[in-house]
Amino acid sequence: MSKMTTPITPNSKWDLSSWTIFYFSTTFILLIVYYLLTYFTSPLRRYPGPLLAGFTNLWRVYYIRQKKFHLVTEELHKKYGPVVRIGPNVLDVDYPELMKVVFGVKGEWKKTGSVLASSTLVGGKIALNLFSQTDPEIHAKWKRPVAKYYSANAVASLEGHVDRTLNGFLEEIEKRFLKEKGEWSEGVDLGKWLGFYTWDSIGALTFSENLGYLSTGRDFDGTLLTAQKSMDYFCTCYGLPILDRLLDKNPFAVFRKFGPPGFGPIAMRTIKRIMARVEGKDKDFHSADQPDYLDKFLEAKKLNPEVVDDNVLFGYLMNNMVAGSDTTANVLRATIYHGLKDGKRVWNKLSEEVLHKFRAAGNGPVDYKAARGLEYLHAVIKEALRASSPVALGLERYVPKGGVTLPGEHGWFVPEGAILAFNPWVMNHNKMVFGEDADKFRPERWLKGDGETQKQYERRLVMMNNYDFTFGGGSRSCIGKHIAFMQLYKVLATLVLMYDLELLDPEREWQVYNRLFITQEGLEVRMKRRM
Ligand code: HEM
C-alpha cells in the first residue's frame, strides 16, 4: 500500500510562531551583517581597543552604566596607549598637545549629539540650551548676550548671595551637630550637607530663592534624587544618543514617557520662578538691590530680543541649576576627603595658613578676594579639581573637513566625521604633564618644589595650567568656572577657619560614581568648633 503524504499548505506550516521565528532570525542575521560591515569597512579599524567596542556603542553604554567609565578608560589607555577605540566611530585620546587644536575658539570641531539628552521637552519641542546646542553659530549667538555675567568681576558682585547661603549652612551645622567648643561631634555626613549647600546656593544665585535643602536637612521634594536619576539617564544616552529619541524626545513622549525622569521638576521650578519675577510676585525674597542671574538674563532678553526668546532664557536658567551644583559639591568633598586622609597632612597645613590669615576676623564666611590670596588653599583647590575632575566622560568632537593626523610615532590619520573624545579625568591624570605621581592627591605639585629653580617651576606650572582640562576648552569651555571658584575658596576657607575635622573612619574608602559628573558617597566626619 502506497503511503499517503500530507500536502504542504502555507497555512499549516507558516503559523504565527513560524513567522515570529522567521522575523527574529532575519533581524538577527541582518544585525550581524550590519555589525560586521561596520567593523570591517570602518576607517577606524586599525585603532586598538576592546573588540566589542569596534562593533557597537552598546559596549560603551554597558560600562558607562557601571558608573566607573573614567577608570575603565584609564585602564584602556594603560593597556593600549594614548588612543583607544571606544565605539565604532569614537576614539578616546590622551594627547594633551591636541587639545588646543580641537578645543579652539573658532569651534570648527563640532560637539556631537551625545549631549542632546540634557535638553528638556517643553510643550512637545526639544528646548536646547547652551550646553546641548551643537550648532556653533547658534551657540555663539546664545552665548554672546550672557557671557559678561559670568566674568570674574560679575561673579564677585554676587558674593552676597553666597554669604547668605553659607551663613544658613553654618547655622544648620551648629544647631544640629556641634557641641561645646573643643568637643568632637558625633558622625556628620558632611558630603550630603555640602550637596544641600551647593543646591541652595545655586538657587540663591539664580533666583534669590532659598530652595530649602539646608533648612529641612533633606531632599524634601526629591529634586536631588531626580537630578541624579536624570544624570544616570543622560549618561546612558551619552553613549547611544538614539536612545533618547526612542525613550523621550519623540511626539509620543507627550502622552507617555518611557525614559527615566528628565530634568522635569527642576524645569517646573524654573518656569514658576520666571513667572513670579515677571509678575512681581517674588518680592518677599528677591530685592532689586541684590540682582541675581534671573535679573541678568531678563536684561539680556530685553537688550537682545531677536536672540533671547523664552526658550533661550529658560535654557540659561536650566544650565545654572543643572551644571552649577553637583560639580561644585564634588570638588568641595574631594578637598576635604583627601585633605583629611593621610593623617590629616594636607588639612593641618591648610589650617595653619587659613587660621593665620583669618583668625583675627572671627567666625563667619571669609572674604573671597582675601581667600584667593592664600597660596596653599589655591594649591589644594587646583589639586582637587585635577585629581577629582568633576566631568569624567569624554568630551566628544567631530573631526572636521580634511581630517586630522594624530601626534605620536605612528602619525595615524583620522578622517572627517569620526569622533575624538577627551576625558577630563583621563587628561588630568596624564603623567607626562602632572608627574609620575599624578594618581596621588598632592597639592604641592602646584607649588615650587624643593631643589627646583624658579625657572623650572614656572615652566612646569605653565605646562600644567595649559593642559589642565577640568573646565574643558575653547568656545565651549565652562561658562560657570568663576562661580565654582568663588564657592570653593569661600566654603573651604570658612570651614577650615571655624572647625577642626577628622574622618569618622580614616581607614574606610569612600564610594565614587561617574554620572558624567563625579559623585561621591561616604564623606563622614566628626567636627569640632575652633572658636
Ligand atoms: C567645579 C565646577 C565645574 C566644572 C569642573 C565644570 C566643568 C565643565 C566642563 C568640562 C564643560 C565643557 C563641556 C563640554 O565641552 O562639553 C562645562 C561646560 C559648561 N558649564 Fe561647567 N563646570 C563647573 C561648574 C559650573 C557652574 C557653577 C556652572 C553654572 C552656574 C556651569 C555651567 C556650564 C555651562 C552652561 C556649560 C556649557 C558651556 C558652553 O557650551 O558654552 N559649570 N563645564
UniProtKB/TrEMBL annotation:
Its cofactor is heme. GO terms for molecular function: heme binding; iron ion binding; monooxygenase activity; oxidoreductase activity, acting on paired donors, with incorporation or reduction of molecular oxygen. InterPro entries: Cyt_P450, Cyt_P450_CS, Cyt_P450_E_grp-IV, Cyt_P450_sf, Cytochrome_P450_monoxygenase. Pfam families: p450. CDD domains: CYP57A1-like. The chain crosses the membrane at residues 20-37. The keyword Membrane applies. Keywords: Heme, Iron, Membrane, Metal-binding, Monooxygenase, Oxidoreductase, Transmembrane, Transmembrane helix. Heme binds at residue 478. Belongs to the cytochrome P450 family. This is Cytochrome P450. It comes from Podospora fimiseda.
